[in-house]
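Lab notebook, bench 4. The sequencing result for the construct came back, and we need a structural model before the next group meeting so we can plan mutations. Quick request posted to the team channel:

Model the 3D structure of this chain.
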Amino acid sequence: MDPENSQLSKKRSFRETYVDALYKWLGDRVFTTVVVGLGITIILITLGMALVLYLEGSDALGEFGLFGFIQGTTWDPAVQLLFGAWPFMFGTLVTSVLALAISFFPAIAVAIFSAEYAAGWLAEIIDNLIKLIAAIPSVVIGIWGIFILAPWLRDTIYEPIYFWTETNYPDMLHILGNPMGYGMATATIVLSLMILPYTTALAKDAIKAVPKDQREASWALGSTRWEVIRMAVIPYARGGIMAGAILSLGRAIGETMAVAMLIGNKNTLPFSVFGAGATMPSVIVNEFREAVESLHLSSLMAIGFVLFLIALIVNLTAAYIQRRLSIDGGQVI
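Done. Here's the predicted structure in token form:
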């Protein structure tokens, strides 16, 4: 063998034996360390946020107790210094759940149309519009709600319903409340519009993830397009669809600016449909800079801690539903 070729062969052998092995070993270790480190960092950040909220809200939680604070219906930072979170928890849960109920089926319909019926160019346009709506800042939607949506709802829907009820069922006016245009109903409608893109995008991802042979098996049995969707696609994708809906609910629970601009911000339990109310994020953003009493500030932080717990429960519920409704080999696990 040529001496030069022999030296080159030895160098290649040395590189293949030691350098490449060392490079692969280091690459695996570095990648594993970075991934594990980032995962642990996320956990520590989350725990740190919860700990800070709890410590900052500990004065209020110690004063009223956790359940006393949650069940309290009086929020009076000016005179009595009594702080109960239930009016804001009630407003948060009612507006969020109703917003999801309003937007769920339209979102699923749009997702099915975009994934199963629409041509490629039309599906792309729909996807881009969904992303555009999702990217609109909350404060912009709030301004649109103040100047466009709320006056339109008041003049077109709320006042006709109010006057019709006043004529026919005057005893039920207290259920409707004053049709100002700003209140629980308007905030719920705005929230439903805000979470619609999220529910749609997540539902479409779940539908697109259904294996192709799942559809082909149904086609082979002579099913129509709707029967394929109803019996093969939706059952397979329902775990992802429901998990996406729950995550959208979490998005609605945490929404702040648009709700604060449209819900009316009344610190009592909302007893009417059109009347003003408040949510947990809205009371925090409205009163945080004006809180001068330490107990008032601590109560706002305690609301943030309770909101964190609710968001945690919602996300854990989404994960549980996705796992329970996932299909493996045709069996629900």
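The longest helix spans residues 3-56.
Will bring this to the meeting.
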